[in-house]
Structures are given as C-alpha cells and as structure tokens.
Amino acid sequence: MNDETTTDPDATPDQDAEARTRTAVVAEDESLIRMDIVETLTEAGFEVVAAVGDGESAISKTRELRPDVVVLDVKMPQTDGVTAAEKIGEENLAPVVMLTAFSQSELVERARDAGAMAYVVKPFTPADLLPAVEIAISRHAQIVQLETEIADLGERFETRKRVDRAKGLLQTNMGLSEPEAFRWIQKTSMDRRLTMREVADAVVDQLGGQGKE
Questions:
Q1: For the chain, which residues score pLDDT lower than 50?
Q2: Residue 114, burial from CB neighbour count under 10 angstroms (0-12, 13-18, 19+)
C-alpha cells in the first residue's frame, strides 16, 4: 500500500525516529475517510502498516506490529475507539490519536481518560491531523522516558503530574513549546545529575507563584 515513503524532516527531534520510516495503524469504519487518512500519513512520510474498520482489529494489529502511532475513530463497530484506546494505553503499545465529531464532546473526555495523546475533530484536513499525530508521538515519548526513570507505578503517576505542571509553567513563562519544555527538563536533569521530578519540583517552586495553579 505504501511502497514509497519519505522521511519527514520536521517529524521529530528524536534522531533514531528520523533515521527510519515511522509506521502507523489506522482504524476508521468509513472507507473513504480511512483512505484519506492513509493518504495523508503516507504523504507525510509514514508507512501505514494496517488500515482497518473496527476497534478490535486495531488492538490486534497494534499488538502485532507495534506502530509509532495509531489513529482511531471514536465510533466503530464491535469495539469502539475509546475502548481500543484504553487497551492500547494499558499495554503501552503506541500513542493514540482519536478522531471525533463535534457532537461527541463527552467521548473526547473519555478518550483522554483512556490515554489518547491527541484528538482531531471531523471534518479535518492534513493541517489538522498531522500536528496532532506529532503531538501524540512526542507526548508518548515523554511518558516512556519518565517510566524508564521510575519503577514504582504510584511514583510514575505523581512524577508525570509534576512534570506536566512544570512544562506548563515553562511554556507560559519562557515561551517554550511543549516538546521544548520537556527537553529543557530532561537536559537540566542530566546536566545537574538530578531526577526529572527534582527538576520539575524546582521549576514549580520557582515559577509556580507567578501563574495560576
């Protein structure tokens, strides 16, 4: 389906990801929309390794192929996208981008709780979908980095909350993007031989009083 792929120079700051073609699984029960998503991702340099029409197939293919990102429609037969996102998130298989309609705002909240890293509202264009895909990949990479640093599950959750708080403060006070804020915390952690949680706590202590909680 995607014999020719090109590397997107703006795809990600991670050099290993840039060195290879990134992969995607697409799950959308409407065939025309599914084809559009596949075409958009392919033109952006992704290899779509599976394009399916239901959530159960999305879970199965994601387990089998371990793609770099999964694009899921919220409403699908058999297993819906939110349930699929929950299972993919529980097993930490891949970052998930959810597709939703304007009338499905309550499902967006469920999708976030399920672990979706980003969502796109239908109808959408490549200019809507591709940034959401990059955000999802970036956020997932951040979570993986935190989880490799911290073994205890409760500690992981607390650290993620604190790092998210610190990222928000850095974005507001230093004008950084979310990936830039995370890299700043990561680099400071390595340079000063501190954990990322310690760096996040220091940022919150220093900048927390300058904005709203």
A1: 1-18, 211-213
A2: buried
The pTM (predicted TM-score) of the whole model is: 0.63
Reading the block at residue 63, the tokens are 């387990």
Nearest Cα residue to 30 out of 81, 88, 92:
81
- At 72 the pLDDT is 92
Return the pLDDT at 210. Answer: 56
Do you know the residue count of the chain? 213
For residue 67 the two structure tokens come to 């793609």
Three-state DSSP state, 21: coil
Give every CB contact of residue 203 below 8 A, 6+ residues apart in sequence: 166, 169, 170, 185
3-state secondary structure of 195: coil
Looking at the DSSP bridge assignments, the partners of residue 120 are: 99
Write the DSSP symbol of residue 103. Answer: G
d(CA 167, CA 157): 15
E-only strand ranges, 10-76: 23-27, 47-52, 69-73
* pLDDT in the model for residue 96: 92
Report how far residue 213's alpha carbon sits from residue 210's, in angstroms, rounded to the nearest whole number. 9
pLDDT at 17: 45
Tokens of 2: 């995607």
